[in-house]
């Protein structure tokens, strides 16, 4: 070590001597050394100017390209200085950094005027750097390995899902057929029951006339109505339901039926779904208003009135019972109709099964149609989420889906950009006094899938880095290895 | 939870402040109509408004009262209001060295319990009166007297006794009149009338009489009916603005005066406003603008072309016409309005100005010029020159609200190296603190501030942190607890510590008008007190108008109480100045040898702020119009002595596109203080964050700045000698060329470099006026080095073009090796650029010192003269042999433009007898290669 220091000092002393007559090759990179051989003239390397060779490295900038002063700061705006950095790798620095009192080369060759004493620590730095490089190469190789795994997994899943979707599509037809058949059956049963119901109602009317003051249990009735309302799915969320609300509920049910009638003409197999999913708000409101008017005329708490309303429903097409029946108090539905109930539950099971399969198809279809990268390398990221916890927040990125900062949405997945190196998430939660939040995920090669370094370069415009094997490439590994070889 | 509440409240406050990034909320700020004293004083030309508010007064010199007290170099006289015998004023008239006249007036006998504020600590202690020489002694017959303000008979002051008028004559011509329009107005201090318990009718009458007797705010004209009286007393003893009440315990004490600049159609100065450099008329001839307002305010998102007040003010107005340059300095720190009117009396054209202040005494300095250069000398004689900046502070400053962490700082610092862009200072805004407690650090993001500064300093760069005057009211905060226990806070009207809302939430404000408190404040910058500070840390003072988020006009209540029993209204415009002063003192005193020049940037300013430090134009916007107005604003400040000034490059609010930011860097590179800054919500915009070619062009602009640093430094040194603006309107250098008087988009740096930055979007071509037709000036485009005759030229302005021209006849020192920062350039050799005029001569100066200490005050500097004449370049001492600094720096290149090719070049310095050169006959350009002459020794170079 002592020897090294001694040697180092000597070298500096020599350099210090050279201030007045710097070697013409001082600061020249190895690939350009041949142009700096002693001659009468020097040709500026990148401009058509010739100067006496004595003016090379004479601390005066003659060449417009700065190539006559490789070893001084004379061409500071354009020149480059080459640090040998024995023990580490050679490198260029801006010639404005030469003799500026800051050690830039690890061998200290840039500070030969000794404004500052620079240590030659290339050996240590070199070792450290090689270690890091090897680690980086190792990590990269590891990443490539994992990338292969990801590609394999991606392709496997892709194939599986392709098969699955084909299978599911095939399964749909028989179910659809079954549903149609069931519906026909149910219709038949209903018609039968309607006749029966009519008969029962007539009977009951007669009975009621006889026992005019025997009132039904209103409480129980309300409870039941409430439950039924939930079935309709449009109920008002109040614990104690009033009769008028009950009427509302019925009228809403009716609206839905009306809608269905309008839209589907009572033929559509998806009738129930449509009725609950009906989004035609404007149309609906209008109808509700009409019905409210109609109902308000009979705004009476008496059950008689209720029955009157029910009567009025009878004029509506048969299909009304699809809706009205489940919400009607049980005593209107004869227990004898178990057959119909069995059929209906079978029908709804089938419909559910159909829906499930359709949903599954949709999901898989969406996945398969997504940008999954070369060899489906990104597919293993599908349906996964990654977290990064900072001092203030936990950031979550779910590729292909969404991103968030704690509970705040940073956006929905938009696309891969920048040759598949960036994922962008847009239209997150509106920023106060600013844009909607957005996030760019900048991806780079890494051994594991890992988020780091979140930034907010613009108001509510976030960036985050994502290490993933998916971004590793053989080409880049070659570059890394090449660099590593150079530094030896 | 409390934190949450505070956060919510803060965010509400912020929402009020930040809101939509569109424009200023003018309803928050007063106009003349909203300030009762202004309404009373202003001659209203508004349609339908009869001048009922205006209170007519007319003052006469009391017979026999004019006395010259020779020991005091002072003429005393008494003034009495014609209609109000008790309103007697005493006036002092003095002449100062260099052609300056001072006129002061206040009550002869004021009430003992109330006092008028005399502005302190602005005028230099060194100013001296000279003996007054009568030109004509007072006599009743002539109704006048006169005295000289210089040695010559041509230059005198003529005072008319009845009614009082004061006329300043320059070169035998009337230059400035005083009270020519009878707007001299003085509301004597009075006692508040007690409420009366009398019959309604009589009460009304009594009140009226009382007003007449005690307030003197009414003339005794009988045509004022009682109704009018009732209206006009409202606002005397209290007034409201929005939800804020001003209790006005001292009642009315406003002053007013008119000055007419005779023969002039151009007046300049009274910064800071966003109007053109040549001040616009605010009244007369159908013009109905608000008067220029001088009241330091934190105006959120200010707009262009407004006479409304901004962050700082200098009550100096300069008038210029082809014959003379004169000025008026109205030394008053209270809220002030100035009306400007084009008039035809006493000669046409003339500029009548009307000055109105809410309190204080009448204290007027007449600067008699008669040339631009003498005006600057006279004003600098009174208020001082610009503190010589450390070299580093003339480099580029990188700021952002906020660099978030030590890593962030280091990354930005490295970014400059990686992108090969020089810069000198990185700045930390309020977020670096622990909860906006200044002198503290956010321990999470800045755990090792000293280490961080050392990393920056290892590349010879500096750091600046922000320290604002509002102190967080937190008993665990040492500044607050000490200030509270020592009673150092400004008091509210009830005598309790003033409590206002600012960045930290509930805050109090130290009373910097008190010298003891300034001294205490200065000690807070000691390295032992300001933990984590190092000698490479400098300071930024913001919000020192002072800004109070929940105060009237976002500032302090005028009835708050200061040192000496004065009200905030009396000292308002001085607050930021004193704060700036105390901070700069602290930076000097923190070093045992007290030998490091301070650097403190301030937003608020007043006359004299140039002695303390740099000023910037506050929170501008990323808009082309704001880039454009930066030049007039800075020129206006430069005329008023505030030469070390700049505007936020890129625009503070919003996001500039690449073109705007590029053009802004180009402009900023040629403005005195050069800092990029951006709002918290703005996108990051370090120079390398824009696509090419923008980053390269920005780099080129910053590099250009650095190459001209020797010129900037020399020009700042010259300011310490002559007070001349560093950034000059063209008329300053060419006072006879009336076509230049309105120009404010083009200017000179010193007297040699003309700059016309591109400030228009998508500007492809541009007209440039090159002045000096009368003297056959030649200009050299610094890019092409081609000579151009004076006149109007049209040039191409591609994005990379910064139109800059060297004046033929000038010699400019440069350093063309560009480094990481200014420190690394210190030992680099000079390049001398000589541009010859039509007589083939040129001259210029070079100033050199250690670039950071006060040693230059003890002769440790070089001030050199370059003279090129008859093919001989001589380099000689320009300091009268008072300078003795050794720099060991050489000249590596001398370029002479407009010269014939010599056969040989010789020099009188041993070892350098024969100099090698190159000649470009196309450009008539001679380059002397490596003369390697030391700048420490004189030399003569001959072209043979």
Q: The CATH topology of the largest domain in chain B, please?
A: TIM Barrel
Rg of chain B, please?
A: 29 Å
How would you state the average pLDDT of chain B, rounded? 92
Distance from N terminus to C terminus of chain B (CA atoms, Å) equals: 85 Å
Number of helices of chain B: 16
| Total of helices of chain A | 10
User: Sheet bearing the most strands of chain B, described?
Assistant: 10 strands, antiparallel
Structure summary, number of beta strands of chain A: 12
Structural class of chain B: alpha+beta
How do the helices and strands follow one another from N- to C-terminus of chain A?
A: HEEEEHHHHHHHHEEEEEEEEH
What share of the residues of chain A does DSSP label as strand, in percent? 5-15%
GO biological process, one term (chain A): N-glycan processing
InterPro entries (chain A): Gtb1-like, Man6P_isomerase_rcpt-bd_dom_sf, MRH_dom, PRKCSH, PRKCSH_N
Signal peptide (chain A): 1-21
Keywords (chain A): Coiled coil, Disulfide bond, Endoplasmic reticulum, Signal
């Amino acid at each position: 070590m002592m020897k090294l220091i001694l040697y180092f000092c000597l070298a500096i002393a020599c350099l210090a001597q050279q201030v007045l007559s710097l070697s013409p090759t001082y600061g020249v990179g190895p690939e350009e050394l041949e142009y700096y051989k002693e001659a009468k003239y020097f040709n500026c390397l990148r401009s058509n100017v010739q100067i006496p060779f004595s003016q090379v490295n004479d601390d005066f900038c003659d060449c417009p390209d700065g190539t006559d002063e490789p070893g001084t700061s004379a061409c500071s705006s354009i020149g480059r200085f080459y640090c040998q950095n024995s023990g580490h790798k050679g490198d260029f620095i801006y010639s404005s950094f030469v003799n500026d009192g800051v050690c830039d080369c690890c061998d200290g060759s840039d500070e030969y005027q000794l404004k500052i004493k620079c240590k030659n620590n290339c050996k240590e730095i070199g070792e450290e750097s090689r270690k890091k490089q090897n680690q980086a190469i190792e990590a990269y190789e590891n990443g490539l390995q994992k990338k292969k795994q990801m590609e394999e997994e991606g392709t496997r899943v892709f194939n599986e899902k392709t098969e699955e979707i084909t299978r599911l599509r095939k399964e749909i037809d028989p179910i659809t057929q079954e549903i149609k058949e069931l519906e026909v059956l149910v219709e038949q049963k209903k018609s039968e029951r309607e006749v029966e119901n009519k008969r029962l109602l007539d009977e009951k009317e007669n009975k009621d006339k006889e026992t005019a003051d025997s009132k039904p249990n209103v409480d129980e009735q309300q409870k039941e109505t409430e439950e039924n309302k939930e079935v309709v799915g449009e109920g008002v969320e109040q614990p104690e339901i009033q009769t008028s609300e009950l009427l509302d509920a019925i009228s809403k049910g009716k609206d839905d039926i009306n809608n269905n009638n309008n839209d589907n003409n009572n033929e559509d197999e998806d009738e129930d779904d449509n009725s609950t999913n009906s989004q035609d708000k404007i149309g609906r409101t209008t109808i509700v208003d009409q019905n409210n008017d109609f109902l308000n005329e009979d705004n009476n708490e008496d059950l008689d009135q209720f029955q009157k309303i029910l009567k009025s429903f009878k004029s509506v097409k048969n299909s009304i019972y699809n809706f009205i029946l489940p919400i009607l108090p049980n005593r209107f539905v004869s227990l004898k109709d178990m057959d119909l109930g069995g059929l209906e539950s079978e029908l709804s099971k089938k419909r559910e099964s159909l829906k499930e399969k359709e949903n599954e198809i949709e999901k898989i279809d969406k996945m398969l149609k997504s940008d999954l990268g070369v060899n489906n390398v990104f597919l293993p990221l599908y349906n996964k989420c990654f977290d990064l916890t900072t001092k203030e927040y936990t950031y979550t990125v779910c590729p292909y889906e969404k991103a968030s900062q704690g509970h705040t949405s940073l956006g929905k997945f938009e696309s891969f950009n920048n040759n598949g190196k960036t994922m962008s998430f847009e239209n997150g939660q509106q920023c106060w006094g600013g844009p909607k939040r957005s996030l760019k995920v900048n991806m780079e090669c890494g051994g594991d899938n890992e988020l780091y370094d979140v930034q907010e370069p613009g108001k509510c415009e976030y960036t985050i880095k994502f290490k993933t094997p998916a971004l590793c490439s053989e080409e880049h590994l070659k570059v890394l290895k090449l660099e590593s070889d150079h530094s030896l | 939870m409390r934190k949450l509440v505070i956060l919510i409240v803060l965010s509400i406050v912020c929402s009020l402040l930040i809101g939509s990034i569109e424009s200023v909320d003018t309803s928050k700020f007063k106009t003349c109509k909203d300030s009762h004293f202004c309404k009373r004083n202003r001659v209203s030309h508004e349609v339908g408004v009869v001048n009922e508010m205006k209170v007519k007064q007319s003052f006469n010199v009391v017979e026999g009262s004019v006395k010259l007290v020779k020991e005091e170099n002072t003429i005393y006289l008494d003034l009495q209001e014609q209609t109000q015998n008790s309103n007697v004023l005493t006036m002092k008239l003095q002449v100062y060295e260099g052609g300056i006249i001072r006129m002061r007036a206040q009550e002869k006998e004021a009430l003992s319990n109330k006092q008028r504020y005399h502005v302190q600590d602005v005028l230099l202690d060194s100013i001296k009166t000279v003996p007054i020489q009568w030109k004509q002694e007072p006599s009743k017959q002539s109704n006048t007297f006169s005295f000289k303000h210089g040695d010559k008979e041509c230059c005198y002051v003529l005072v008319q006794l009845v009614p009082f008028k004061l006329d300043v004559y320059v070169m035998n011509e009337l230059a400035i009149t005083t009270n020519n329009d009878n707007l001299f107005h003085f509301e004597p201090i009075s006692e508040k009338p007690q409420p009366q318990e009398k019959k309604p009718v009589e009460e009304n009458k009594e009140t009226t009489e009382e007003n007449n007797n005690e307030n003197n705010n009414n003339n005794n004209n009988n045509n004022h009916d009682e109704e009018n009286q009732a209206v006009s007393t409202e606002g005397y003893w209290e007034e409201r603005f929005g939800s804020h009440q001003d209790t006005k315990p001292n009642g009315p004490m406003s002053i007013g005066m008119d000055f007419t600049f005779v023969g002039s159609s151009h007046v300049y100065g009274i910064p800071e406003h966003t109007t053109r450099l040549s001040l616009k008329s605010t009244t007369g001839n159908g013009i109905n603008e608000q008067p220029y307002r001088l009241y330091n305010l934190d105006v959120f998102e200010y707009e262009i072309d407004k006479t409304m007040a901004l962050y700082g003010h200098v009550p100096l107005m300069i008038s210029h016409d082809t014959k003379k340059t004169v000025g008026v300095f109205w030394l008053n720190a209270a809220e002030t309005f100035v009306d400007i009117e084009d008039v035809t009396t006493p000669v046409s054209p003339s500029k009548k100005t009307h000055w109105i202040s809410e309190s204080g005494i009448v204290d007027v300095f007449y600067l008699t010029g008669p040339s631009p250069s003498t005006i600057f000398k006279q004003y600098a004689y009174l208020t001082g020159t610009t503190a010589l900046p450390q070299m580093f502070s003339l480099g580029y400053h990188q700021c952002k609200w906020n660099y978030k962490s030590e890593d962030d700082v280091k990354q930005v610092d490295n970014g400059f190296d990686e992108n090969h862009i020089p810069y000198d200072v990185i700045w930390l805004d309020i977020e670096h603190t622990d909860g906006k407690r200044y002198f503290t650090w956010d321990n999470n993001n800045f755990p090792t501030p000293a280490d961080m500064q050392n990393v920056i300093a290892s590349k010879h760069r500096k750091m600046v942190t922000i320290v604002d005057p509002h102190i967080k009211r937190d008993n665990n905060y040492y500044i607050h607890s000490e200030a509270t226990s020592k009673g150092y806070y400004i008091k509210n009207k009830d005598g309790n510590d003033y409590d206002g809302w600012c960045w930290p939430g509930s805050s109090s404000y130290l009373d910097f008008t008190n010298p003891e408190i300034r001294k205490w404040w200065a000690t807070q910058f000691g390295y032992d007190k300001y933990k984590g500070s190092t000698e490479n840390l400098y300071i930024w003072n913001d919000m020192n108008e002072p800004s109070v988020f929940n105060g009237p006009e976002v500032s302090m209540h005028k009835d708050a109480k200061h040192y000496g029993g004065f009200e905030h209204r009396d000292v308002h415009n001085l607050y930021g100045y004193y704060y700036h002063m105390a901070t700069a003192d602290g930076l000097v005193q923190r070093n045992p040898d007290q030998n490091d020049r301070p650097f403190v940037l301030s937003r608020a300013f007043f006359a004299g702020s140039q002695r303390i430090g740099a000023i910037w134009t506050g929170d501008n916007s990323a808009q082309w119009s704001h880039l454009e107005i930066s030049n007039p604003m800075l020129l206006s400040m430069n005329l008023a002595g505030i030469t070390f000034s700049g505007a936020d490059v890129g625009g503070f609010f919003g996001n500039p596109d690449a073109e705007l930011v590029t053009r802004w860097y180009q402009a900023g590179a040629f403005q005195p203080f050069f800092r990029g800054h951006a709002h918290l919500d703005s996108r990051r915009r370090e120079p390398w964050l824009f696509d090419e070619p923008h980053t390269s062009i920005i780099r080129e602009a910053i590099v250009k700045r650095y190459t001209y640093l020797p010129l900037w430094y020399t020009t700042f040194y010259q300011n310490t000698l002559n007070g001349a603006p560093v950034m000059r309107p063209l008329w300053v250098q060419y006072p006879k060329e009336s076509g230049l008087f309105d120009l404010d988009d083009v200017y000179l740096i010193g007297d040699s470099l003309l700059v016309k930055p591109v400030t228009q979007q998508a500007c492809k071509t541009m007209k440039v006026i090159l002045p000096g037709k009368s003297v056959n000036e030649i200009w050299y485009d610094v890019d092409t080095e081609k000579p151009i005759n004076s006149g109007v030229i049209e040039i191409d302005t591609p994005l990379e073009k910064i139109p800059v021209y060297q004046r033929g006849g000038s010699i400019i020192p440069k350093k063309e090796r560009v480094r990481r920062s200014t420190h690394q350039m210190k030992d680099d050799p000079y390049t001398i650029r000589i541009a010859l005029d039509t007589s083939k001569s040129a001259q210029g100066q070079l100033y050199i010192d250690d670039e950071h200490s006060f040693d230059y005050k003890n002769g440790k500097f070089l001030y050199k003269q370059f003279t090129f004449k008859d093919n001989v370049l001589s380099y000689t001492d320009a300091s009268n042999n008072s300078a003795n600094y050794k720099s060991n720096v050489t000249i590596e290149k001398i370029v002479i433009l407009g010269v014939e090719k010599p056969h040989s070049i010789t020099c009188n310095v041993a070892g350098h007898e024969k100099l090698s050169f190159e000649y470009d006959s196309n450009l008539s350009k001679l380059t002397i290669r490596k003369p390697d002459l030391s700048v420490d020794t004189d030399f003569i170079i001959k072209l043979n």
